[in-house]
Predict the 3D structure of the following.
Amino acid sequence: MSKIRFIGLDVHAGTIAGAVASRMANSARWALIPNHLESIRKLVTRLGPVQHLKACYEAGPTGYVLYWQLTQLGVSCEIIAPSLVPAKAGDRVRTDRRDAEKLARCCCNGDLTAVCVPDAAHETLRDLVRAREDARQDQHRARQGLGKFLLRHGAQAPADIKKKWTTKYLTWLNTHVRFEHPALQATLLDYVHEVHHAGERIARLEKAIDQAIATAPEAIRSVIANPASFASWVGGFLLKRQQGLDQEIKDIA
């Protein structure tokens, strides 16, 4: 166990700051490398046998790519919950080097809490769901913009149309709302186009999600098809994420 070298990584889109600590050394060494697979491979080769390496980095916008790259190279790697990294009171100065060294030392001391890392099949489906959620948010903004535009110009649907964005409402919008001024009409058409485009985008993504589920591994399909199993899976996932938290926080979750 004393031969294990603990690697803390501060990961950014273009660079990775890496620090190495061990139980036999008091200080951590560090280096800054480009965030490219070849640079990562060279760093791993330079640090020694992969069976003596253990890497970690904080969960963030760079996702799980580095985790998959390191595990494919044979390096044990964990992704750490940023909110659960130990912090000293008053220690507010953060640099890439200090963050990497801190992760390396905490990993060496066993003070870090890892998050659950999905496999590639799970993450692919999650990306599709994220894209659909983005489309829903874009649709909401487009509808809000169109609704405010119509309100500013006194264009109100008839009393028999109780709800917005239904087929009846959109038919009224496309056939009865017109403006004499060309600029206003161009603005209306642009808003309406964005609303329709957002709806088409959501429908396209939902179709892609259905197709992805149909071709997904059996383990994923069985979880999605069985609500009780899905709830159990979510519960187990949350329990793993809650490891190391105070009981009060677990109760809230």
